[in-house]
């Protein structure tokens, strides 16, 4: 069980915690930044209502009005920037929450090593493809501390803090998007909605020979024409007749993970096509070596079949329901 779960996951629990710590940082930054904007607004309001000490005449009043209008304009720009940041924080919070929920269902954080196409060392391949990065390991610092000239009523200072926050959010969004890409390629989504679990993975009595045989997948029983859905995103590497599988589809999800869908009555995708999670790829049927309409669903790790229910359970499917 642990080897199966470890093979499919690129989302280690350590990585998820790395993201959530930064989410906490962004929320703290947002709170501090809001205080800066409020203080700036208060300074502008006070400057507008306090009477001028120098009654030198119209020129001073005109100059004061221009300064006030400039401050109001800057405040408007800051508010607009903050309004753009807030929904990004909400979206990031939602993404991290979903990833944390999924990560909590994983029993092992170990990821499947990538196998390079040239058969070389996976570690060497990763090093060759990655950009050079490094430096000391230091905790993140709030944007208010990174500002070289902090001032409670300085619009430029507040803008620097907003720019810092934008850059921080962009880094966090990029990291979270990488996790979501890995999640979309994890084959745990139910490939036939409303289907019931039939013959399980493992040794069973063959329905044709009535002798003990190995069943490399699970059977999901449903009526002919029920949509077959991709269990994860990936590339179609086979679509057509395949011996006892009848009309079959194979989807490569990367990192050695492949799903196979057999006995389809109709195939809707072609070899080489990219598919999304839960995309309608075929219809349930009874082609090939089959006693009735159902979907034969397999998960293969580095070419070896594993129990698909271990993956489906992570997305809430119940093989005993």
Structure in words:
The protein is of the alpha+beta class and 321 residues long. The chain folds into two domains: 2-184, no CATH class; 196-315, Distorted Sandwich (Glucose Permease (Domain IIA)). 43% of the residues lie in helices and 19% in strands. The protein is built from seven helices and twelve strands. Strands 1, 4, 5, 6, 7, 8, 9, 10, 11 and 12 form a ten-stranded antiparallel β-sheet that branches. It has a two-stranded antiparallel sheet with strand order 2-3. A hairpin with a 6-residue loop joins β2 (202-205) and β3 (212-215). α2 runs antiparallel to α3 (58-104) and α2 runs antiparallel to α6.
Quick gist of this model?
With 321 residues, the chain is of the alpha+beta class. The chain has 7 helices and 12 strands.
How much helix, percentage-wise, in residues?
40-55%
Residue-averaged pLDDT: 73
Please provide the ordered H/E string of secondary-structure elements: HHHHHHEEEEEEEEEEEEH
The number of strands is 12
Rg from alpha-carbon coordinates: 29 Å
CA-CA gap between termini: 20 Å
InterPro entries: Cell_wall_metabolism_enzyme, Dup_hybrid_motif, M23ase_b-sheet_dom
Pfam family, one: Peptidase_M23
Region (Disordered): 107-159
Keywords: Membrane, Signal, Transmembrane, Transmembrane helix
